[in-house]
Write a structure and sequence with these properties.
The complex is a heterodimer of chains A (410) and B (233). Chain A is built from 12 helices and 11 strands. With 410 residues, chain A is of the alpha+beta class. Chain A has 2 domains: 183 residues, no CATH class; 193 residues, no CATH class. In chain B, 31% of the residues lie in helices and 26% in strands. In chain B, helix 5 packs parallel to helix 6. Classes of the chains: A alpha+beta (410), B alpha/beta (233). The interface between A and B is large, with 47 and 46 residues. Bound molecules: adenosine-5'-diphosphate (ADP) and magnesium ion.
């Protein structure tokens, strides 16, 4: 007995089947989804969640990077800080008094501004706070051009200006203001520095290029000399240089600051820390993307499962289509397109969801919203591919079904 | 004009593994333009015979020719093309797509013929017109009576102007009046030139048809023969 039902696909003797138009293939494949909307939504959900997670990861990290880029652009990468390091015996070194002046005479230097930590001087909100609870806020004597040099922004009030510089007035770093509980400035807002009340004239935003000043109280140099006996011994010199010459300045500035002991000078570029944060993001992203990938895999299995059930349930439809003249190829393509459409639907929903999550998170953090176009396009392409892989076996099963199967049964 | 027969069976057997002989040693010739009933008890092989006529199945023995094509020698593509262009099917359970309007169900009868979307719809409306369902074109199957559903299915079967129309117990799920209306419609289509083969176990309905083929245990046990028609002219 010869097996009658296995036939070659492809052309052979006899009439040729008509080619189905691309639009008809799409319509027929996607049309199968309309019959069971609930199931479509549920099985597309897995894909949607996986894609949403991945898109959100990409979106949030690129929004974060856009924000960082914006900040780095605003702050510039051409700030160099010079501070005393340690001497040969591990003790604390000091910078010579002339350091600031000598650095300022380097031709590449655009501006220079130093701060001096007034060690042993504590800062309190009032004299009721016990001296042990100063919160580690450091008092600094600063030069007039400091805020411009480090590009720190004033959140409340103003910076130290000539009118306030020589009087006991103070500008607080962001963290210091928070610790002291100062969130607005009135003429009566004062803090106690050492034994002297200073009026608070301003509060700064976080200073990305000088984070050491976030927890600081900044007072004018002449007041500091008068009240605390400051000696002009720099704890940090901030140097803004020609952006093209940063590397060269970095190399030579130590020798300029302390010609006798250049090894006791520490030179750094604070924008390096910001740039390093971009790289740090990447490792976390890899992990989250991996998790999204796992969700996607599970989603793909869900699609395959749905398609297997669909093929079993629709044996009557398959038989009918074969009776209407569908080739095995037509049936296979129909179910393959259906699986791809199902998966792509999930992908599309996932992209929208992920974009919404990105926008929500970025707006919450005050970042610019940045979602690279390739994330959306890539996500949809990937889901189409997942659909093709998930739908392949069910589609082959559907195409292999005998035309007579299920046609006679109710 | 002596046209090629619509179908010609020569010593046809359709055996299944395990010794089931759904059809055995059947010789049968159906000429174009005929209208024949296939009668027989349940399990006698009627559906098997119809599937072979419609190239949905192939014989394990003997040869089946449909419009001259040896069904056993055609590829899947060849058979599919033959079905798409020349053969229409009607089933007892209608096999309409749920939630899809009648006109789109009918238009699917042309999906595999290469006709464009607009053409398919236009011809579907005409086919619905032909079966008397002009005003039901946009109803979904569950909004139609059994008789109307079967007429939609007939419209789908004939929308591509097939030369051979095969119906497997088309009245089986219908009441007497709807069943009679369906048989009348098939008769009219036959008068328009379509070869019609219809399975029924309603002897009364069958008695009104020009030819009756009786099947029992996979064999043709009685055949009222080809009714003499235009050949005499
Ligand atoms: N796929 C199959 N495998 C095995 N036996 C089958 C198959 N299809 C039909 N048969 C058998 O062939 C015989 C004829 O079936 P069928 O043509 O459906 O009869 P009818 O339509 O006259 O009721 C029955 O005995 C049935 O059990
Ligand atoms: Mg039957």
């Amino acid at each position: 007995m010869r097996a009658p039902l296995r036939r070659r696909g492809g052309p052979g003797p006899g009439p040729r089947p008509a080619r189905m138009a691309f639009g008809d293939r799409l319509r027929t494949g996607a049309g199968g989804l309309r019959a069971r909307p609930t199931r479509v939504v549920l099985s597309a959900l897995g894909i949607a969640i996986g894609i949403a997670a991945m898109v959100a990861v990409v979106g949030v990290s690129s929004s974060g990077r856009a924000e960082l880029d914006e900040r780095i652009g605003r702050l510039g990468t051409n700030l160099v800080t010079v501070s005393p390091g340690s001497d040969l015996f591990g003790g604390e070194a000091t910078l010579p008094e002339e350091a600031q002046g000598r650095i300022g005479r380097m031709p590449e230097v655009e501006s220079v501004s130093q701060v001096e930590l007034l060690s042993g001087t504590n800062v309190y909100r009032s004299d009721l706070v016990p001296s042990g609870e100063s919160g580690g806020i450091g008092a600094y004597a600063v030069d007039p051009g400091l805020l411009e040099t480090i590009r720190a922004e004033v959140r409340l009030g103003s910076g130290l200006n000539p009118a306030t510089r020589d009087h006991p007035s103070v500008v607080l770093g962001a963290a210091a203001a928070e610790r002291l509980g100062i969130d607005r400035i009135t003429p009566d807002t004062v803090v106690l520095i050492g034994d002297t009340y200073f009026s608070v004239v301003g509060v700064l935003e976080r200073a990305d290029l000088a984070p050491e000043l976030d927890n600081a109280a900044l007072i004018g140099r002449s007041v500091a000399e008068r009240v605390f006996g400051a000696e002009g011994e720099a704890s940090t010199v901030y140097v803004r240089v020609d952006p093209e010459k940063v590397a060269s300045v970095r190399e030579r500035v130590g020798r300029n600051a302390n010609p006798e002991r250049p090894n006791e000078v520490e030179v750094s570029r604070p924008s390096d820390a910001l740039e390093a944060r971009r790289a740090a993001d990447q490792t976390l992203n890899g992990l989250l993307l991996g998790l999204g990938g796992v969700a996607l895999l599970v989603g793909g299995v869900g699609v395959a499962n749905t398609m297997v059930i669909s093929v079993l349930e629709r044996r009557g439809e398959i038989g009918l289509r074969r009776a209407l003249g569908a080739t095995r190829r037509d049936v296979r393509t129909q179910f393959l397109v259906e699986a791809m459409a199902l998966s792509a639907l999930g992908g599309l929903a996932g992209v929208l969801l992920g974009a919404a999550a990105t926008a929500g998170y970025a707006l919450l953090r005050g970042w610019p919203v940045a979602l690279p176009w390739w994330a959306g396009v890539g996500a949809v392409c990937v889901t189409v591919l997942i659909g093709a892989v998930a739908g392949l076996w069910p589609a082959l099963r559907a195409a292999a079904q005998q035309p007579t199967e299920a046609l006679g049964s109710a | 004009m002596s046209a090629v027969p619509a179908a010609e069976f020569t010593a046809v057997g359709r055996h299944y593994p395990g010794g089931v002989r759904a059809l055995d040693a059947v010789d049968l010739r159906i000429d174009q333009g005929e209208m024949a009933a296939i009668l027989g008890p349940s399990g006698s092989g009627k559906s098997t015979l119809l599937h072979l006529l419609g190239t949905l199945d192939a014989p394990t023995e003997g040869t089946v020719r449909v419009f001259g094509h040896d069904v056993g020698a055609l590829s899947d593509d060849g058979l599919s093309a033959l079905r798409a262009r020349s053969i229409g099917f009607v089933f007892q359970q209608f096999h309409l797509a749920p939630n899809v309007p009648a006109v789109d169900n009918v238009a699917d009868g042309l999906l595999y013929t290469g006709a464009g979307f607009r053409t398919r719809r236009r011809r579907a409306l005409r086919a619905l017109d032909r079966v008397g369902l002009t005003d039901r074109a946009h109803h979904r199957p569950h909004e139609l009576s059994g008789g109307q559903r079967q007429r939609v299915a007939i419209a789908r079967a004939v929308v591509g102007s097939p030369r051979l129309l095969l119906a497997d117990e088309p009245t089986g799920a219908l009441d007497t009046a709807s069943g009679a209306a369906v048989m009348e419609l098939l008769g009219e289509l036959n008068l328009e030139g379509v070869t019609v083969v219809v399975i029924t176990h309603d002897r009364e309905l069958a008695a009104r048809l020009p030819r009756r083929v009786e099947v029992r245990d996979g064999r043709v046990v009685a055949d009222s023969g080809v009714a003499p028609r235009e050949e005499a002219v």
